[in-house]
Amino acid sequence: MGVTGVRRGIHVLVVAARGGALVRLSVERALRTLGWVPASSPADADLLAVCGTPADQERDAIEQIWRQLPGPRARVEVTSTEALGELLSQAASALEDHELQATLAQEADASAPMGMDHEDMDHAGMDHGDMDHGDMDHGDMDHGDMDHGDMSMTGPGGIALAGSSDDDRDGLEMDVGHVILGAGLPGWPAGLVLRATLHGDVVTGVEVLASPAPPSLSDPAVRAALLVDAAAGVLDLAGWSAAADSARRARDDLMDAAGATRIAAADVARLTRRVRRSVLLRWSLEGPGHRAPSSPAPGSVVRRRLIALLEAAATTLADPQGPAHVPLGDDLALLPELAEGQELASLRLLVASMALDAGVAADA
């Protein structure tokens, strides 16, 4: 990558803006090579890496994220993979530049009383910490520390999360609010901005404010890499971080030299079997209850799409000239119906399963 003598262990928060899906994959692969650490929140980050060119709806959110990074901090904007190593090296040097860091600290102090109103891009309810469900060891099926209550897409005990009542689940009157979801959320598609209407703590409406710009892909290995990357995002949000790491290693192999494709294809096939057989993953997404096939629960949709993403990646590698997948537009149109009555965590799972960065969506 052209980065030498750079200290390891730098924590990097990667934010994908419009058109930045492929750039993000290259950046994340570079981080793994350098031994740098993906950050889970602004508070955990030394470096903010913005991939792509932010749209108007994304700029405010990215600026707010930047203000939340503690010092020392650095920022890099990556619009292409050219000279990526040099950009990262410069960012690492900026972290050691005491004069620059003193200037950034003064700017942060000066702006502290201002810009703290996140109404236009409120990520408070989507704090990365709230989405961290720990490592799920699906291999041994150990249920000891496997609390998936917050990620259950059917609600506790299969109880519906929203209905016609104006009362919240605690019996109190529910507040109605709005939250904008976009750049900066882990696993969020580049360029997608949503406005979610919340009735209490559940989603009652979803509006698409900005749609992603799917990349034009000719290389089947890259198409497969983006599909596997989407699967990794779903697995992360579902709490199975070990499987997500396996998916990202296969993704990075697919983005590497052509010789790694055969190895990655075997890894994808193996991961597909693990996901398909995981009883705990099924339970965590679908819950103990079941709906009629004519009205599948959103958790069932997510699990089916997750498996289909991995199978589509394997098919793409086996038959590069095969047919295209279902276009994303239909799935975005269905998102409000699927998300209604669900919590924000479930909405994020639904979005992640659509593989919008790949420009395709698994058949639901």
UniProtKB/TrEMBL annotation:
Name used for this protein in its record: Uncharacterized protein
